[in-house]
Amino acid sequence: MLSDGPFDGREAFQAQLQAAFAAAAQEGWREIVLSDPDFADWPLGERASIAALQAWAASGRRLVLLAEGFGVFDRAHARFVEWRRLWSHIVEARACSGSGAPAVPSAVWTPTWSLHRIDPERSRGVCTRQPERQRVLRERIDECLRQSRPAFAASTLGL
Q1: How many domains does the chain have?
Q2: Does residue 135 sit within a domain?
Q3: Which end of the chain, N or C, is less packed with Cβ atoms under 10 Å?
Protein backbone atom coordinates (compact mmCIF):
# COMPACT_ATOMS: atom_id res chain seq x y z
CA MET A 1 0.00 0.00 0.00
CA LEU A 2 1.28 3.44 -0.92
CA SER A 3 1.97 5.74 1.96
CA ASP A 4 1.69 9.47 2.38
CA GLY A 5 4.34 11.20 4.42
CA PRO A 6 8.02 10.96 5.23
CA PHE A 7 10.29 7.93 5.00
CA ASP A 8 13.76 7.52 6.48
CA GLY A 9 16.48 5.05 5.56
CA ARG A 10 17.42 2.77 2.71
CA GLU A 11 15.08 -0.07 3.71
CA ALA A 12 12.13 2.33 3.94
CA PHE A 13 13.04 3.84 0.56
CA GLN A 14 13.26 0.45 -1.11
CA ALA A 15 9.99 -0.67 0.51
CA GLN A 16 8.30 2.45 -0.91
CA LEU A 17 9.67 1.64 -4.37
CA GLN A 18 8.41 -1.95 -4.20
CA ALA A 19 4.99 -0.69 -3.08
CA ALA A 20 4.96 1.78 -5.99
CA PHE A 21 5.79 -0.92 -8.54
CA ALA A 22 3.03 -3.15 -7.13
CA ALA A 23 0.52 -0.26 -7.11
CA ALA A 24 1.39 0.59 -10.73
CA ALA A 25 0.04 -2.77 -11.85
CA GLN A 26 -2.93 -2.83 -9.46
CA GLU A 27 -4.04 0.73 -10.26
CA GLY A 28 -3.13 0.66 -13.96
CA TRP A 29 -0.96 3.77 -13.96
CA ARG A 30 -0.53 5.05 -17.50
CA GLU A 31 2.76 6.87 -16.86
CA ILE A 32 5.63 6.41 -14.44
CA VAL A 33 8.74 8.57 -14.25
CA LEU A 34 11.76 7.13 -12.45
CA SER A 35 14.39 9.77 -11.83
CA ASP A 36 17.77 9.48 -10.09
CA PRO A 37 21.34 10.61 -10.78
CA ASP A 38 22.47 6.98 -11.27
CA PHE A 39 19.93 4.48 -9.77
CA ALA A 40 22.81 2.70 -7.98
CA ASP A 41 20.83 1.89 -4.81
CA TRP A 42 17.43 1.24 -6.37
CA PRO A 43 16.09 -2.36 -6.32
CA LEU A 44 15.54 -2.41 -10.09
CA GLY A 45 17.37 -5.70 -10.62
CA GLU A 46 15.36 -7.64 -8.04
CA ARG A 47 12.91 -10.31 -9.14
CA ALA A 48 10.01 -8.64 -7.30
CA SER A 49 10.61 -5.33 -9.11
CA ILE A 50 10.71 -7.01 -12.51
CA ALA A 51 7.60 -9.10 -11.75
CA ALA A 52 5.70 -5.94 -10.76
CA LEU A 53 6.88 -4.03 -13.83
CA GLN A 54 5.95 -6.99 -16.02
CA ALA A 55 2.45 -7.01 -14.51
CA TRP A 56 2.20 -3.25 -15.15
CA ALA A 57 3.56 -3.18 -18.70
CA ALA A 58 0.94 -3.02 -21.44
CA SER A 59 0.04 -1.13 -24.55
CA GLY A 60 -0.60 2.52 -23.85
CA ARG A 61 1.72 2.62 -20.84
CA ARG A 62 4.85 4.77 -20.61
CA LEU A 63 7.93 4.55 -18.40
CA VAL A 64 10.39 7.43 -18.44
CA LEU A 65 13.85 6.93 -16.96
CA LEU A 66 15.82 10.09 -16.20
CA ALA A 67 19.41 10.01 -14.94
CA GLU A 68 22.74 11.75 -15.20
CA GLY A 69 24.08 8.42 -16.51
CA PHE A 70 23.09 4.77 -16.85
CA GLY A 71 26.49 3.10 -16.37
CA VAL A 72 25.41 1.13 -13.30
CA PHE A 73 22.61 -0.76 -15.04
CA ASP A 74 24.61 -3.51 -16.75
CA ARG A 75 26.42 -4.30 -13.48
CA ALA A 76 23.70 -3.84 -10.87
CA HIS A 77 20.37 -4.21 -12.66
CA ALA A 78 20.84 -6.99 -15.23
CA ARG A 79 17.25 -8.23 -14.94
CA PHE A 80 15.97 -4.72 -15.55
CA VAL A 81 18.20 -4.36 -18.63
CA GLU A 82 16.65 -7.52 -20.10
CA TRP A 83 13.11 -6.37 -19.21
CA ARG A 84 13.85 -2.98 -20.79
CA ARG A 85 14.87 -4.72 -24.05
CA LEU A 86 11.55 -6.58 -24.16
CA TRP A 87 9.51 -3.45 -23.43
CA SER A 88 11.61 -0.86 -25.28
CA HIS A 89 8.49 0.44 -27.04
CA ILE A 90 7.10 1.80 -23.75
CA VAL A 91 10.40 2.85 -22.11
CA GLU A 92 12.08 6.18 -22.80
CA ALA A 93 15.51 6.75 -21.22
CA ARG A 94 17.01 10.24 -21.03
CA ALA A 95 20.29 11.56 -19.64
CA CYS A 96 20.57 15.04 -18.17
CA SER A 97 24.15 15.97 -17.38
CA GLY A 98 26.82 18.44 -18.28
CA SER A 99 27.58 22.07 -17.75
CA GLY A 100 24.50 24.07 -16.81
CA ALA A 101 22.24 21.03 -16.50
CA PRO A 102 19.90 20.98 -13.50
CA ALA A 103 20.40 18.39 -10.76
CA VAL A 104 18.41 15.23 -11.48
CA PRO A 105 16.05 14.59 -8.55
CA SER A 106 15.77 11.15 -6.95
CA ALA A 107 12.07 10.51 -7.42
CA VAL A 108 9.16 8.47 -8.67
CA TRP A 109 6.38 10.51 -10.27
CA THR A 110 2.96 9.31 -11.35
CA PRO A 111 -0.16 11.36 -12.03
CA THR A 112 -1.62 10.39 -8.63
CA TRP A 113 1.33 9.75 -6.28
CA SER A 114 5.01 10.60 -5.98
CA LEU A 115 8.08 9.79 -3.96
CA HIS A 116 10.83 12.39 -3.61
CA ARG A 117 14.08 11.33 -1.96
CA ILE A 118 15.21 14.74 -0.73
CA ASP A 119 18.39 13.40 0.96
CA PRO A 120 19.64 10.53 -1.23
CA GLU A 121 22.73 9.94 0.92
CA ARG A 122 20.56 9.02 3.93
CA SER A 123 17.56 7.87 1.85
CA ARG A 124 15.23 10.38 3.45
CA GLY A 125 12.27 11.81 1.67
CA VAL A 126 8.54 12.13 1.36
CA CYS A 127 5.70 10.38 -0.44
CA THR A 128 2.65 12.39 -1.37
CA ARG A 129 -0.63 12.56 -3.24
CA GLN A 130 -0.89 16.35 -2.76
CA PRO A 131 -1.40 18.00 -6.17
CA GLU A 132 0.80 21.01 -5.36
CA ARG A 133 3.77 18.85 -4.31
CA GLN A 134 3.17 16.67 -7.36
CA ARG A 135 3.25 19.72 -9.63
CA VAL A 136 6.47 21.11 -8.13
CA LEU A 137 8.25 17.77 -8.49
CA ARG A 138 7.04 17.37 -12.08
CA GLU A 139 8.32 20.84 -12.94
CA ARG A 140 11.80 19.86 -11.68
CA ILE A 141 11.68 16.65 -13.70
CA ASP A 142 10.43 18.48 -16.81
CA GLU A 143 13.30 20.97 -16.59
CA CYS A 144 15.76 18.08 -16.61
CA LEU A 145 13.89 16.41 -19.49
CA ARG A 146 14.04 19.63 -21.54
CA GLN A 147 17.83 19.63 -21.23
CA SER A 148 18.27 15.88 -21.66
CA ARG A 149 19.26 13.63 -24.53
CA PRO A 150 18.33 10.03 -25.42
CA ALA A 151 20.41 7.46 -23.51
CA PHE A 152 20.51 3.81 -22.38
CA ALA A 153 19.65 2.24 -25.71
CA ALA A 154 17.59 -0.95 -25.57
CA SER A 155 20.11 -2.67 -27.81
CA THR A 156 23.49 -1.94 -29.31
CA LEU A 157 23.94 -2.25 -33.04
CA GLY A 158 27.30 -3.08 -34.48
CA LEU A 159 28.76 -3.43 -37.93
Answers
A1: 1
A2: yes
A3: C
CA angle (126 as vertex; 35, 13 as ends), nearest 5:
65
Domain with 67 in it: what CATH number?
3.30.870.10
Rounded Cα gap, residues 122 and 23, in angstroms: 25
pLDDT reported for residue 29: 95
Q: Is residue 100 part of a domain?
A: yes
Is 156 a domain residue?
no
Residue 22 is part of which domain span? Answer: 5-150
Is 44 inside a domain boundary?
A: yes
Average pLDDT, the chain: 95
Element at 142 (helix H, strand E): helix 131-146
Residue closest to 6 by CA, chosen among 90, 158, 117: 117
Give the separation between CA 104 and CA 147, rounded to whole angstroms.
11
Classify burial at 39, counting beta carbons within 10 Å of its beta carbon; exposed 0-12, middle 13-18, buried 19 or more.
buried
List pLDDT tens digits, range 116-139: 999 999 999 999 999 999 999 999
The pTM of this model reads 0.95
Q: Is the dihedral of CA 122, 96, 154, 113 positive or negative?
A: positive
